[in-house]
Amino acid sequence: MAFIMVDVETDGPIPGDYSMISFGAVLVNEQLDQSFYGQLKPISDKFIPQALAVSTHTREETMGFDDPQQVMQAFKIWISSVSKDRPIFISDNNGFDWMFICWYFHHFLGENPFGFSSQNLGSLYKGITKDTFQTFKHLRKTAHTHHPVDDAKGNAEALLTMKRTMGLKIKLS
């Protein structure tokens, strides 16, 4: 299975009413050398300035981003190129990230190459440590910058550390 770490940046709390403005994905392997980055033109007139500010982009900049359907098609092709079999979606906050990626795939392409499930990195770490108050974030090497590829890479590094030092049994591509 190909584990693909994903991070999204948005201009609001839910897809449809608000927009996913960028996302990054990293194939989880020992090298962390395969990534995807997409910037998407907003699909709605609605946006929350504070939510958009997290990404460091202005509304004016996002209006020049790429067509969402083209970006999602390119992402689907990338997923196929790095996955020999079923791709597994994993993220720091899969409740949020998955919601946007799944909605955009279904809305623009009519399908989601990840299927109907996702994995949560934080929950995995809590299970390994047997402590629901623990966080994995200290395991990141790459700084959490809110550039989605940086953030996905840092989360992938944390997952690899769980494999190497904490006994996590996981088969990587």
UniProtKB/TrEMBL annotation:
Listed InterPro entries: RNaseH-like_sf (IPR012337), RNaseH_sf (IPR036397), Rv2179c-like (IPR033390)
GO molecular function: nucleic acid binding
Gene3D superfamilies: Ribonuclease H-like superfamily/Ribonuclease H
SUPFAM superfamilies in the cross-refs: Ribonuclease H-like
Limits of the 3'-5' exoribonuclease Rv2179c-like domain: 4-160
Pfam families hit by this protein: Rv2179c-like
UniProt name for this protein: DNA polymerase III, epsilon subunit
Organism, scientific name: Chitinophaga arvensicola
Lineage of the species this protein comes from: Bacteria, Pseudomonadati, Bacteroidota, Chitinophagia, Chitinophagales
